[in-house]
Specification:
9 helices, about 325 residues, five-stranded mixed β-sheet, globular, alpha/beta, binds zinc ion, single chain, 12 strands, seven-stranded mixed β-sheet
Length: about 325
């Protein structure tokens, strides 16, 4: 994996130079997201908050202690609507909160209270509950006051953080409906949100895959020096190409099975992921194949999230017991 241009992956604040910072949360699995901070003079821009208030609070304290401009964060960008990128928004409630219009719309339908109910009921939910706690058991969803964006844009928005030009580009729908890339143009830094998972399987809730491939191409065209993914270690264009290759691979593998009449569920079990065996969370193939199948069929309906969590649970259990079997 050294070919992916991956940097040392340590929890906490990572200095990218020239007023750009990344907050990393190894191992980048379910809910363990990255965030970013861009500063110039007294001006600051936070890229995403974290999954719960404690994690976000720890991050903000470390930023304030190390970066004077972070003591009063003026603006926050949410790269997309998933809770691991916005549940901590209330802790920077004085800031302008910026997102794509599609993200803001989607975020309004996400509800941290639903996660509390799932956590409380998980013990009685068998395998599904076990998988839910594997993904989300480490986080505290109680007490979160959902705090929505205060400013939205459709396709692109240019911000100035001090003298720095920061370009926001909406590249969704792909991972979610309103994914945004944050490009600090003069510093060669891109914060990608969940358009990139590095060393973990991407999860395509929305699609179409062509948008996600275009998003990868857009990042590569920026010729960045440093790329901060939504999950996983900091990388460069090599990491972007790896995700692009993965998406093309599963698109083609899913298409062949769709054309042969195989069901999406069977395809999710059947596709060989051995080239990606070092990447985490391979059960996400279930969501990716389901989204691809809907796309192939011209079906624009939303993903069936409970059903897909059920299928991911089956794949996760299967692979876990296979990996525990003596060779
Ligand atoms: Zn995420």
């Amino acid at each position: 994996m050294s070919t992916l241009g991956i940097r040392p992956y340590s929890r906490g604040l990572n200095d990218l130079g020239a007023g750009n910072w990344a907050w990393l949360q190894p191992d980048g699995s379910w809910g363990w997201s990255n965030a970013g901070l861009v500063v110039d003079g007294d001006a600051s821009l936070l890229v995403d908050t974290l999954f719960d208030l404690q994690l976000t609070g720890e991050m903000l304290s470390a930023m304030r202690a190390n970066v004077p401009a972070a003591r009063a964060i003026g603006r926050l960008v949410n790269t997309h609507s998933n809770g691991d990128h916005c549940n901590g928004n209330e802790l920077v409630a004085g800031a302008e909160i910026i997102a794509s219009a599609a993200c803001a719309e989607e975020m309004a339908h996400e509800n941290p209270a639903g996660m509390v109910a799932m956590q409380q009921g998980a013990a009685k939910m068998g395998d599904l509950g076990e998988f839910f706690l594997h993904c989300f058991g480490a986080f505290e969803f109680r007490g979160i006051t959902q705090t929505l964006p205060t400013r939205t844009f459709d396709d692109a928005l240019t911000l100035h953080v001090g003298d720095k030009r920061v370009e926001l580009n909406c590249v969704g729908p792909a991972h979610t409906r309103g994914d945004v890339l944050v490009h600090v143009v003069d510093d060669g830094v891109v914060y990608t949100g969940d358009i990139l998972f590095i060393e973990g399987h991407p999860i395509m809730w929305a699609g179409p895959v062509s948008n996600w491939l275009r998003a990868c191409d857009a990042i590569i065209a920026m010729a960045p020096q440093q790329v901060v993914p939504g999950h996983g270690p900091i990388t460069d264009v090599r990491g972007v190409r790896a995700v692009r290759d993965y998406l093309e691979y599963i698109r083609d593998e899913a298409r062949a099975r769709y054309d042969s009449g195989m069901s999406a569920t069977d395809a999710a079990f059947d596709i060989n992921l051995s080239d990606y065996s070092s990447w985490g969370d391979s059960e996400r193939i279930a969501v990716n194949v389901a989204t691809l199948y809907r796309e192939f069929a011209g079906d624009t309906s939303a993903p069936n999230v409970p059903e897909l969590f059920g299928l991911m649970t089956r794949i996760w259990k299967d692979r876990r017991s296979a990996s525990r079997r003596p060779a």
